[in-house]
Amino acid sequence: MSTNAPINDTPQINVTLAQPQVVITMVPGVVIGGPGGGGSGAGPPASTVLPIMDGIAAIGIATPYSREDHVHPSDTSRVIKAGDTMTGTLVLAADPVNPSEASTKNYVDTQITSLNEVYVNWVPYTGPPQTFRNQDMTRDGDWTMIANKDTNQRPAPQATGPTEDLLPDTWTPTTANARAGYTIYNEWTLSQAGWIDQHGVDVLAQNVNALHAVTLTVNGVTRDHLTFTPSTAGVFWVDITPMLVVSGAVLRETLQLTQTANNVMYWVQQSGLFATPPTNCSLAVGSKDGAAAGTTAYGAHLQFIPGAASPDWEIVAYGGTASGGGMLGVPEAPTDGQLYGRENAAWSVVPAPGPPPINYSTSEQWTGLLWLDGKKIYQRTINFGVLPNTATANVAHGIANISYITLINLQATGSGYFSSIFVSATSANIIGCYVNGTDIFVETGSNRSSWNAYVTLQYTCTDR
User: Fold this and answer.
1) pTM for this predicted structure
2) Domains in the chain, ordered, with CATH?
3) Which residue has the higher pLDDT, 283 or 309?
4) Is the separation of the CB atoms in 367 and 374 below 8 Å?
């Protein structure tokens, strides 16, 4: 049997050859090719219809075949990986786990809710009682507070007793001195929780204008430090934002005084004062220049307010007026441009302050006043020296760029008299004074050479 001849017999005819054993199933229109190549009979045609888009899987019934280089069209019902626009709802399988996964609405909503504990929310105070969330900020009286957890505790600390200076009222010190600087401190261990809002030291009259350094520590940690040169004697108080302290806290106030030149420096002390701890303290000690701490107290003070504070709140600021329903605050002053003062929570108009006081000086000073043209009025005192003998003398005033002289004040003394510019019907008694751009002139009607004078000028300048 030739394998190149077309076989058009009845379908499904099986032919069995003896060697080799082959079974051939006849199908109409199919050509079986021999060893040398393909058959030459007619077969199914190639399709001339564009391939269809992907869809629901199906076996199909068409007999034309697809060519090797056929291309299916893009399926517009699918999302393109490179980017596309959705026209319907996209449902994700679950909340994201890895950073590059898409987020569901449920995940975003949950995260936004948790952000309430990240960002600060202002909540007016209307309690007590009142409930707050973590990171809520409010103003309770003079206290601006922020919650560190969800809470219904009152924000502001509440005093349970009067303010006490931890250097007791029984303080009756003696004064000591040495030709050297020194360091003293008082230290207190609290037996009651509360807060501190002031600390200070005694400034002695003998130590005025010396350098003072004051340090407040709590449990060995510096919480406030100030260096200053006082001009007056007395207790020098340092105001601080109230600082909450617990029972058992150790508070120390230190003064370091720097010696001025080779002067004798003074301090105050009272032996045995701390043998009995002050109110609200379980222990108090003092020390000077690193000596062992003992019962001797020194001139260092600390204001303590016993009270209770919720651990659910942190202090943001203290002072000013309350907002919302704050119970301890007072309204803001009127904003009509006038100056107001407050007494017993009531605001009233107070006179505007005048210019600051000015001392006589041979250096130029601004008086705090303005002339009619708005220029600043300056003042300077010049030592004129000896007055002339029935003549006119002049002295340079050293003031540059004078625009206008607003005041000439001559202060002269001699022969047991004090005089200013003097005008008299008797020419021998006259003392006159006038000024130009460079000099002061004094004219006398008689011999005033035993007199000395100062001239104080007030003036404006073209360049300032």
Assistant:
1) 0.47
2) 1-39 (no CATH), 90-118 (no CATH), 121-156 (no CATH), 164-315 (2.60.120), 365-461 (2.60.40)
3) 283
4) no
